[in-house]
Amino acid sequence: MKLFSSATSPYARKVRACAIALGLDDRIELHQASAFDDPPALLEANPLGKVPTLVTEDGLSLFDSAVICEYLDAISPEIPMIPATGAARWLALRIQAIGDGISDASLMRIQLKRFGALPDDAPLIERQKRATTRMLDQLEAEPPDTHLDIGTIAVACALGFLDLRFASDGWRDGRPMLSAWFERISTEPALERTVPV
């Protein structure tokens, strides 16, 4: 399999972490790609030009981290990252949506500032900051489980992205439970091996 990835994308990290946790990383050939450069190989695999994009062993192109992780989960012989049924499934998917939502808001802040030339206190940027704050507060009130699943990986990747791009925001301030959870989950090999630099 071929994975078009970016070293700093929280979504690409989520896919790489899932692949490691599912024992599939040795079957994936990693291709670093900057989506903003529109590399021809990435565009051929995904006309949207987004990372992550996975080309399966039979040539099928999959994109969107949730779809790729579900595919990897389906082909792995390991314990699933996405529970098949019941309350555990919906909880894991809900936590994934929170993690992806934090990543969405963070990336939008970057794009609005970089490409929209907006100041840090522009209303659209402030809105994304408030959304992130509300999600972080929810996670503090209800910290995720301590075992790896699609939700905990998504949240850990989102928090790692905040550390990388918005360290001065101090997301840990006033959130001791979430901070402790993040320190513990970050020791998982799938997350240790994919820390963005």
Automatic annotation (TrEMBL):
<dbReference type="InterPro" id="IPR036282">
    <property type="entry name" value="Glutathione-S-Trfase_C_sf"/>
</dbReference>
<dbReference type="InterPro" id="IPR004045">
    <property type="entry name" value="Glutathione_S-Trfase_N"/>
</dbReference>
<protein>
    <submittedName>
        <fullName>Glutathione S-transferase N-terminal domain-containing protein</fullName>
    </submittedName>
</protein>
<dbReference type="Pfam" id="PF13410">
    <property type="entry name" value="GST_C_2"/>
</dbReference>
<dbReference type="InterPro" id="IPR036249">
    <property type="entry name" value="Thioredoxin-like_sf"/>
</dbReference>
<dbReference type="InterPro" id="IPR050983">
    <property type="entry name" value="GST_Omega/HSP26"/>
</dbReference>
<feature type="domain" description="GST N-terminal">
    <location>
        <begin position="1"/>
        <end position="80"/>
    </location>
</feature>
<dbReference type="Pfam" id="PF13409">
    <property type="entry name" value="GST_N_2"/>
</dbReference>
